[in-house]
Amino acid sequence: MTIRNKKLITIAVIICIISLTVSACQSQKEDLVAKVNGEGITKEDFEKEFNIVKESKKMEYGEDIFSESSEGSEILEELKNNVLNKLIIEKLILKEVEAMNITVSNGEIDNEIKNYKEELGGEEQYKAFMEKNNFSEEFLREYFKKQLLFEKHKENFLDKTIIPEEESKKYFEEHKGEFIGVRASHILVKTEDEGKEILKRLEKGENFADLAKEKSIDRATAFKGGDLGYFTKKGDMALAPQYEILSDTAFTLNEGETSDLLETVLGYHIILVEDKKENYKDLKEDIDLVLKKEKHDEEISRLWSEAKIKIYMD
């Protein structure tokens, strides 16, 4: 479950470059979905990757995200393209990762799996998830290893990229609405009575994050104390339209203030504003990061354009 826009379906660590996807080749290759510089990506690898991402998205957005509707079909196709792109990009950066001596420790993988278990709801839910999808521990460890390698490769690029002040200021002036943002946490409950009871407990001084962990039915944020992260009024970081009341309310509150009950299609919310960023000085780091990521996208595009890629999926 999430209040982010469903159109923002991306793999957690991947840059979606759907526009770069090569047209599917007419000649099918048995057991392959694509080839990257002569190296194959098997249907089995694709299906495993797709299933783990699909199940994660169901957990995050709700079971009906892939419903039999035009929107559900569109989201499913977008997800398939994202997964295929992710697998291709992993092949593209593998040699660079090795040359840069980028490694991932077992401890880092253990931590990713620990966090994943928490997102799923605990050890029992994790075991059920693994059994349902026929995933082995080895597969999941390899999955997170590849994600961490991509993240480290990306971080290395971002750290080395310098954004001129003039370019940063110009971008801010042209995209203010996409940067001026609020960081908030929320508690989501099903009924108004439950919400009123939580408000009473907050008034008595109970900790918001602890109550979110205890009472919130939003599994995607409850284990983080209800943290929604930063969101803006418009752009990719905006909340989905049906949750506009949460965004509008958050922008009227001061740091540390809590809202009254706010009703949406999901139930009843209580919002706590954690932080606000409103001027260039406060937002410079965010602006530079966006520009660095754009340059990283360009680098991935360069690798893609120079590679020999064949896609066999319909």
Q: Give the strand line-up of the largest sheet.
A: 4-3-6-5
* Secondary-structure class: alpha+beta
Shape field: globular
* CATH-defined fold name of the largest domain: Triger factor/SurA peptide-binding fold
Number of helices: 11
The percentage helix is 40-55%
Strand content: 5-15%
Question: What's the mean pLDDT score?
Answer: 86
| Name of the top-level CATH class of the largest domain | Mainly Alpha
> What's the number of extended β-strand segments?
7
Radius of gyration: 21 Å
Elements, N to C (H/E): EEHHHHHHEHHHEHEEHE
* Tally of discrete structural domains: 2
CATH architecture of the largest domain: Orthogonal Bundle
Query: Can you identify the CATH superfamily of the largest domain?
Result: Porin chaperone SurA, peptide-binding domain
Characterize the biggest β-sheet: 4 strands, antiparallel
Regions with little confidence, pLDDT below 50 for 5+ residues: 6-27
Gap from first CA to last CA: 30 Å
Summary tags:
2 domains, Triger factor/SurA peptide-binding fold, 7 strands, 11 helices, 3-stranded antiparallel β-sheet, Chitinase A, domain 3, 314 residues, 4-stranded antiparallel β-sheet, alpha+beta
